[in-house]
Each structure stands twice: as C-alpha cells, then as structure tokens.
Amino acid sequence: MQFGIFSVGDVTTDPLTRHTPDDTERVRNMLTIAKHADEAGLDVFATGEHHNPPFVPSSPTTMLGYLAGVTQHITLSTATTLITTNDPVRLAEEYAMLQVISDGRMDLMLGRGNTGPVYPWFGKDIRQGINLAVENYALLRRLWTEDVVDWSGKFRTPLQGFTSTPRPLDGVPPFVWHASIRSPEIAEQAAYYGDGFLHNAIFWPMEHTAAMVNYYRQRFEHYGHGRADQAIVGLGGQVFVRHDSQKAWDEFLPYFNEAPVYGHGPSMEDFTRDTPLTVGSPQQVIDRYGAFWEQVGHYQRQLFLVDHAGLPLKTVLEQIDLLAGEIVPALRHEAELRRPADVPSDPPSHAAMVAAARAAGQVHEQQVAAADHWTGKTAEDDIDAADEVTA
Fold it and tell me: DSSP assignment, residue 106?
C-alpha cells in the first residue's frame, strides 16, 4: 500500500505570526516539502492544479518535472489535473514528457477541481463539467494508445492524422486515477476503463466515502476488470500530529479556526468527528485510518494533506517525519496483515504495466511515432487538409 502527501498549494496567513508567504515562497516551500517526503521514505507526492488565488500550483508538470530530477524514489502525481479545462492534446503531450523524464516514476489524477469562475477563463461551460471530463478523457486515452488519431467531438477542434509526441514511455501510458467527491459519473468513468478511483474525503463523512467507493468497485467488476475488491482505490485525508495529543490539539486549533477552508464553520470537535481530519498522537492517527479498511475494503493509496491552513514550513516537515517514521510503517504492516492475497497491494507501477503489455504482445521494445506527413509543408501548402477540417 502506498502512503504519501498531497498539496493544494494554498497561500494562507499563519494566524500566530501573521506571516503570509508570497507566491514564490509558497512554490519553493512545496518543492522543499516534496524533496523532504522523498528523503523521509514516503511513496507519493501529489500537487493540485489551480488557476486562481489563493492557490499557486498552476503548472504541475513544470513542478513535477523539476522534482523528477532532484528526487530518487517517490512517485510524482497530481491532485488533480483538470480534465475539464485543459486541452487533452496538451495533457497527452505534457504527461508523456513527464513520464519519460521521470523514467515512469509518475501517474496522474484527473478531476474537475476547478472553482466556478475558472471555466469561462478557459472557454468552457461549468454546466458541461461532467461531459467535458468524459469526452476529454476518451480523447486523451486515444492519443496515448493510438499512433495516429482521427477524432471529432463536441468540445474541441477535430483532429486528423494527429500523432502526440513523445509516445508514452515503453509504449505504456501513465496510470490514471479519477478523483471525485460526489459525482458517480466519474466513478463510472474510472470503472469503465479499469483505472483507479480516488475519493478525497477531507470534507466528507466516511459513510459517504464508502458509498462512492463501493459504487466504483461494483462497476469495476461489472466491466470485467476483476472482482470488486480488486479495484484500485485511493483516499485523501488530513492529519495534524504531535507525540502529545493535547499539544497537537492546542497547536492546530488556531490554524483550524482561522483557515478559510475550516474557520467560521463547524467546530474542530465536530469536524474531526465527521471527517478524516485527525488531530492527535501518532497512535490516534493509526487507529483512525486503520479502521477505514473496515468501511471501504483494502485500498492501494492513502494521501495526507499536511501543508495547509498557514502551517509554517518547519511544522510541515515535522509532520512528514512523524508520518514516515511512526505512522506509515504501522499502517503499512496492518494493511498487509488484512489484505487478501489476490487483492493488489499497490497501484499498478510502470514496470508492472510494461511487463503485462509485453506479455500480451501489445508493445514493442522501442517506441517511434508514425511517419510525419506534415513536416516540410507550410500551412498554406496543406490546403487539402485544411479543407477537410473545415468542411
């Protein structure tokens, strides 16, 4: 089972010092956090994608490409990549490039995590969010799995004879997660393709999470990808940990009360009761998260949000050390004890997917894009192709 951290990259004032990091400081702090997670031995670092304040990570592949060069083992992912407002052609190109640069040490999580105003900024209609996610992902898969794509749809300019480059590393596309907190259509999409499903439950009770995961599992089996309990599931959660549980509570309370996403709403007592937010000792986190298996079955990835609400960098790094040093080893051990032998422990790795594809005769040793029939022509020379597109 994989354990890691994810960041939404929020810029929030520290309520104790009144310090507000500027965008540069926040981005650099995210890089430090990711490198520290790698050194500490966590399995995954995932960055969100946002295009409006108070969030800074607007370009995940730039960040993850840098991290691919300065980390050693950690899987680099997103939380989430916006499948609604991003062009699927650009996604195919950028994440195939990241896959090559990181030597397969990456995957991506697709989602609709835009705030409402973002849609029109990118020429999209928020009312079409689900339909955009479905159509764009269908095209993204074809661009990774077919060398030459002819395509037309509702939301994008048609493609004729298009080859996305670079081709996926070893001929195998990145593993994809679909993230949703409330839309069964997205769970259905993940199940249809046999992809992973991640429920980021940071604002939701476990009963709701379990219902969404169970729906995905049943549909995964329906589409013939395996038994329901073998489906690839991830969860998101958030913790604040100190060795003394009362100190943890006292230290995190002012951050909870002032953070825009928490403050001025339910009390921290209510929030920790009704959502995965756990504030306390390492053992309290182990007990709380260890109980999730009983409600959702064995799952393959747990991501923790630890760098939010204005917490200073030093504190975030200490949280990572507590996770990696005390909490994750205990949860990993418990997960293996409970896991049925024929249920996957981890999400599919690049190496495993390549081996499976080669065993099935689906990929060749070297990936070379199909012949390019555009090179050497000017746009004006290709009148026939232009006419076909606009006909």
Answer: B
Pairwise CA distance, residues 357 & 221, whole Å: 21
Residue 26 token pair: 């926040």
Q: pLDDT tens, 292-331?
A: 999 999 999 999 999 999 999 999 999 999 999 999 999 9
Q: Quote the tokens at residue 374.
A: 């555009």
Separation of CA 370 from chain center: 31
Q: Are 149 and 167 in contact (CB under 8 A)?
A: no
The radius of gyration computed from the CA coordinates of the chain, to the nearest angstrom, equals 22
Q: What is the model's pLDDT at position 386? A: 60
The answer to whether 276 and 206 have CB atoms below 8 angstroms apart is yes
Asked, as a colleague might, if the bond just before 54 is cis with ω within 30 of 0, I would say yes
CA-nearest of 58, 105, 106, 110 to 80 is 110
pTM (2 d.p.): 0.93
Q: Contact at 8 Å (CB) between 344 and 230?
A: yes
How far is Cα 179 from Cα 212, in angstroms, rounded to an integer? 11
- The neighbour count for residue 247, using CB atoms within 10 Å, is 12
Q: What are the pLDDT digits (tens) for 109-145?
A: 999 877 788 999 999 999 999 999 999 999 999 999 9
Specify the length of the chain in residues: 391
- Distance from C-alpha of 303 to C-alpha of 2, rounded to nearest angstrom: 8
Q: If residue 44 lies in a helix (H) or strand (E), which one and from where to where?
A: strand 44-47
Q: What is the C-alpha to C-alpha distance for residues 270 and 9, in angstroms, rounded to an integer?
A: 25
φ, ψ dihedrals at 234, nearest 5°: -130, 155
- b/e per residue 171-195 (b: at least 16 CB within 10 A): bbbbbbbbbbbebeebbbbbbbbeb
CB–CB of 113/10 below 8 Å?
no
Helix (H, G, I), strand (E, B) or coil at 119: helix
CA–CA gap between residue 30 and residue 355 (Å, rounded)? 34
Q: Contact at 8 Å (CB) between 276 and 202?
A: yes
Lowest mean pLDDT among 175-179, 220-224, 350-354, 363-367: 363-367
